[in-house]
Amino acid sequence: MSLRSMPRRLNPRALRRPSLCHYVSQANPRLGLAWQSCRNVASTPTAEKVLFPGALNSEFTNNLEFLRPSTNKAISTFRVLNQYGQVIDQERGADTTDEEALELYKHMVCLNIMDLIMFEAQRQGRLSFYMVSTGEEGISVGSASALNPTDTVFCQYREAGVFMQRGFTLDQFMAQLFSNCEDSGRGRNMPIHFGSRELNIRTVSSTLATQLPHAAGAAYALKLKNQQNPDVEPRVAVTYFGEGAASEGDFHAALNIASTRQAPCIFICRNNGYAISTPTSDQYRGDGIASRGAGYGIDTLRVDGNDIFAVRTATKEARRLALSDGGKPVLIEMMAYRVGHHSTSDDSYAYRQKVEVEDWKRRDNPITRLRKWMEDRGIWNEDKERKLRSKLRKDVLGAFDRAEKKKKPKIRHAFDDVWENVTEEQRAHVEELKDILTRYPKEYDLSQYEGGIESLDELLQKKQ
């Protein structure tokens, strides 16, 4: 058959049938929103708006004018308290009780003290690695306080405050940092990689930004569960990341997935000014990370991260939005300044002036701002501050001392949790390791490991 004859075989009725997209949307309107509806009619001569499916509701124009972001005003930053701890909008208020504010303050101070002690411990060689949250305590503690305990959380590596606010104890922090026998991760992760099934917080991963698509996928699963179980309180997925992680491809993939699937996912960006040694001026030329949310059709807000009340208010509203209309993603860019070094492997004074850091520490930070607010209300003073810091320091040092004295996890955990039963190949590896440890006892000190070499026998006796 020639190519010319092919059109003659087309069924004319098929041309008059509604498109598949149109048919599906009519059969079940819940499958798509108005802005997602397919168009099966081309542009008409009198059309004033674009009818192309790739850009709906765009008006036609004969003016050749490029969109120039540099000419637009920067996205505004939401705040509740000013730099002096004073509420800006009295009608809105701080949206908290004195008891709540005191609890938030204690958690931020405790996190700050733990950071100072553990940083010094690493410098003494008693810890292999650590990352501080100095200057960003309000973001993690404040946002976590506004979430539901059942919401699932995917952290990056500077969200110890989220764990603390949700109930992670100092002993649990220290067990993971020292990788001792009480570490829930069984000593398999480097320090700062916390995780808690009980608190609905997924274990931190070293690979940058991988938590973002994980959160988007989890949010879509939660959306389906929320629809299938209307009598159960709905949940959202929340993920944290730095502005440096927003340069990874996973960031864009996650936002696009969450947007197109309308998944109830809250993306919280900690924009602290530096991606390790790279300042934001070398990371991007757009208006921060918030400007990217609009490009993906996501409700977006920029917040003063030094204002814990603004953080709480924004997170509460973001959660409400994320669960509205069947579910939708929300992006919050929380502005802060990374006062500490990126990690104990970094010397930030090699790429920024010390006076810049000291100025931020002195001029504005979340702990000082909340303290000013509490002092103005008469619920805090210098004496209470001194007693709190003294107590918290003793608590942190006590947990530190207990954790440092405990033994390392059992050697068998190097092989556990891979297969349900020990495979033949694993058994050979365990027997080989046991043989080496037995033949060279002076080379391998097993006294520091719980159970010693006998823990390998436990594994070998396990049924195949």
UniProtKB/TrEMBL annotation:
<keyword id="KW-0630">Potassium</keyword>
<protein>
    <recommendedName>
        <fullName>2-oxoisovalerate dehydrogenase subunit alpha</fullName>
        <ecNumber>1.2.4.4</ecNumber>
    </recommendedName>
</protein>
<dbReference type="GO" id="GO:0005759">
    <property type="term" value="C:mitochondrial matrix"/>
</dbReference>
<comment type="similarity">
    <text>Belongs to the BCKDHA family.</text>
</comment>
<feature type="domain" description="Dehydrogenase E1 component">
    <location>
        <begin position="105"/>
        <end position="411"/>
    </location>
</feature>
<dbReference type="InterPro" id="IPR001017">
    <property type="entry name" value="DH_E1"/>
</dbReference>
<keyword id="KW-0809">Transit peptide</keyword>
<comment type="function">
    <text>The branched-chain alpha-keto dehydrogenase complex catalyzes the overall conversion of alpha-keto acids to acyl-CoA and CO(2). It contains multiple copies of three enzymatic components: branched-chain alpha-keto acid decarboxylase (E1), lipoamide acyltransferase (E2) and lipoamide dehydrogenase (E3).</text>
</comment>
<dbReference type="Pfam" id="PF00676">
    <property type="entry name" value="E1_dh"/>
</dbReference>
<dbReference type="InterPro" id="IPR050771">
    <property type="entry name" value="Alpha-ketoacid_DH_E1_comp"/>
</dbReference>
<keyword id="KW-0560">Oxidoreductase</keyword>
<dbReference type="GO" id="GO:0003863">
    <property type="term" value="F:branched-chain 2-oxo acid dehydrogenase activity"/>
</dbReference>
<keyword id="KW-0479">Metal-binding</keyword>
<dbReference type="InterPro" id="IPR029061">
    <property type="entry name" value="THDP-binding"/>
</dbReference>
<dbReference type="GO" id="GO:0009083">
    <property type="term" value="P:branched-chain amino acid catabolic process"/>
</dbReference>
<keyword id="KW-0496">Mitochondrion</keyword>
<keyword id="KW-0786">Thiamine pyrophosphate</keyword>
<dbReference type="GO" id="GO:0046872">
    <property type="term" value="F:metal ion binding"/>
</dbReference>
